[in-house]
Write a structure and sequence with these properties.
Elements: H1 2-37, H2 59-66, H3 70-101, H4 107-119, H5 126-135, H6 142-167, H7 170-178, H8 183-194, H9 196-212, H10 215-220, H11 229-236, H12 245-265, H13 267-275
InterPro entries: BP-dep_ABC_trans_perm, MetI-like, MetI-like_sf
Transmembrane segments: 12-35, 78-99, 111-133, 139-159, 190-211, 245-266
GO molecular function, one term: ABC-type maltose transporter activity
Length: 281
């Protein structure tokens, strides 16, 4: 009995060591970008690899704010992210609750259709959306981009939150209805507080998608002043003659910081919000 316990502890220790090593290996590109962002000179492709910068400087970070419209890119990304979260979550929460609690004709067919639509690559619809936006004068419009993002993430949001709503005992709702609560009051006062982990995690997933999205942002935003952070990062590397890898690395680090802060703030909700959402379909 004691031998089995020792073998189990050794196995868990070795497994933890392997996981730690994998984490460090995965962090190598991030550490290299961080080192490059505080380096003086464009030596990203040099054969010599150093763990510390040869000459430490914060000039690249100051240049991002002074020489490049980074604040404008940040503003556009924040507006698009918040607008998409509000629209996507506002529609997805109600739809997910309806699919979870009500049994009406065509319910399963609609869910399967949504899943099928989500399987198609977004790039296939880009030409049609571009023509539609051009006819409606919605190119270079944040509203148009928010509609695209919200439509793209609604399917994921509905499926994830529906699974979480399925785990909430229906007896809680029946007791509230006996007390005279209407459907909207029941959703607002009872269901939403119980589903907080799933809602927060789903909203953050939507936020991360919009924050990092590049293809639609650079296709439908044709003006330099309407670029998001992803489009702005591309512009930093668009010219072969003025390309600066330290400047690009500094911008990439700055772009990642807000998402990291949000992630650490909601970390306690991540496990319950994602796992419970996949319990039932």
């Amino acid at each position: 009995m004691g031998g089995n316990k020792i073998k189990r502890r050794i196995g868990l220790t070795l497994l933890n060591v392997v996981f730690i090593i994998l984490c460090f290996v995965g962090m190598i590109p991030i550490l290299y970008a961080l080192i490059l962002s505080v380096s003086d000179g464009n030596n990203a492709l040099s054969s010599s690899l150093s763990l510390l910068p040869k000459k430490f400087t914060l000039h690249n970070y100051s240049a991002i704010f002074i020489e490049e419209p980074f604040v404008l890119w940040l503003k556009n990304s924040v507006i698009l992210s918040i607008g998409t979260c509000v629209l996507a979550m506002g529609t997805s929460v109600v739809a997910a609750y309806s699919f979870s609690r009500h049994r009406y004709k065509g319910r399963k067919s609609i869910l399967k259709l949504l899943l099928l639509l989500n399987a198609f690559p977004q790039i296939l619809s880009m030409f049609a959306i571009f023509r539609l936006f051009k006819e409606c004068n919605m190119l270079n419009s944040r509203v148009g981009l928010v509609i695209i993002y919200a439509g793209s993430m609604c399917i994921f949001s509905i499926w994830n939150m529906k699974g979480y709503f399925d785990t909430i005992p229906i007896e809680i709702e029946e007791a509230s209805k006996i007390d005279g609560a209407s459907d909207m009051k029941l959703l607002r006062k009872v269901i939403l507080p119980l589903a907080r982990p799933a809602i927060i995690v789903t909203a953050v997933m939507v936020l991360i998608f919009v924050w990092n999205e590049y293809l639609f942002a650079t296709t439908f935003m044709l003006n330099d002043k309407s670029y998001t952070l992803a489009g702005g990062l591309y512009q930093l590397q668009a010219n072969d003659y003025s390309r600066s890898w330290p400047l690009f690395s500094a911008a990439a680090i700055l772009v990642s910081i807000p998402i990291l802060i949000v992630f650490f703030c909601i970390q306690k909700y991540m496990v319950s919000g994602l796992t419970a959402g996949g319990v039932k379909g």
